[in-house]
Structures are given as C-alpha cells and as structure tokens.
Design goal:
Aminopeptidase, about 180 residues, 4 helices, alpha+beta, single chain, about 25% helix
Length: about 180
Amino acid sequence: MTLSFDDLGSPMSDGEIRLEPLAERHRERLRAACAEDRKIWPIYAVSYDPDHFDASFDRLRARPDVLAFAIFKASRMAGMSAYLGIEPDRGVLEIGNTYYVPALRGTGFNHRVKDLMIVRAIACGFRRIEFRVDSRNGRSQAAMAKLGALREGVIRAERITWTGHVRDTVLFSILADEWPASTT
C-alpha cells in the first residue's frame, strides 16, 4: 500500500486505539490527561503540565513541520504523539512528543501506537524514522529497543529543555527496509 504525503496526517486506528489529527476540540481532554502525571514533565523537552499546557499545545499545533495526534483508547483520551521534523524530500521524519496516561504505560499500548505511525510513514514514502530520547529517560529508551529501533548514539548537549537542562539526546532509528510490517 502506497499513500501520498497528504495521507500522513489522516486518522489511524487499530481496534480500540484511535489516532486523530490534534485539533482545538482535543484541548481540554488532553489537558486533563497530561495532568494525570505532573511529575513526569521535567524529563520532557517541553512541558504539558497545567502551568505550561496551553502555550505548548498552541506551539505544537502551529509548527509547519509537525503533524500531531490525539490518541484514544476506546472513548478515553490516552495521550498524544506526533510526526516531527517532517522532511518529505529526504524521506525522513521523527516520531516524538509522545505522552500516555500512566495507566497505559508498560501495557504494550505504545508499541501498538508506534506500529500504526511507523507503518503509515513508510506507506507514505518515508525511508527513515527517527526517535530522540532524553538520555535520562530509561523507560523511553527501553521502549525504543523493544520496538526494534536501532540506537545510533548520543547527540551531546543537543537541546535545552523547558527547565533549562542541557539535554543529551539518544538517537534511535528505524529504516523502512528494516521494518517487518513494511514487507507484508
């Protein structure tokens, strides 16, 4: 199945999991979901805690190189994720800005969401999918390894987070021809 670049931001689903293009109508439900774990935000580059939510939500939606999604499990707001740094001419994008409510962490939910996003990106012609993880975030690094992403290395002092922390970023990637689902 080959899709066009225009299809990249279309809704996706798998059983009770649904990804919808992030829109204003998602603001309040996503705000409540992000507030379920206020202690997690210092390890993120951008905070969606109650004090920073509106500005972060608005900036994400305004970025021209981003397609963001509200993620649902059945009718419950489960979190968000996005295609970032989309470069169609190079065939490269990043999947990130991911947050899930605490009850879904460690349940296999992330793998199912990322599978949908990776398969869609490959079907739209992207050859390289990147994941950038704070070096302090062991949970996300383990999730990337479990997903089958290759750890390429550490980009030292790659960004300054919302807390002022100078972050070392672990770069992971999946190439289209390495992804098992792309051969079916």
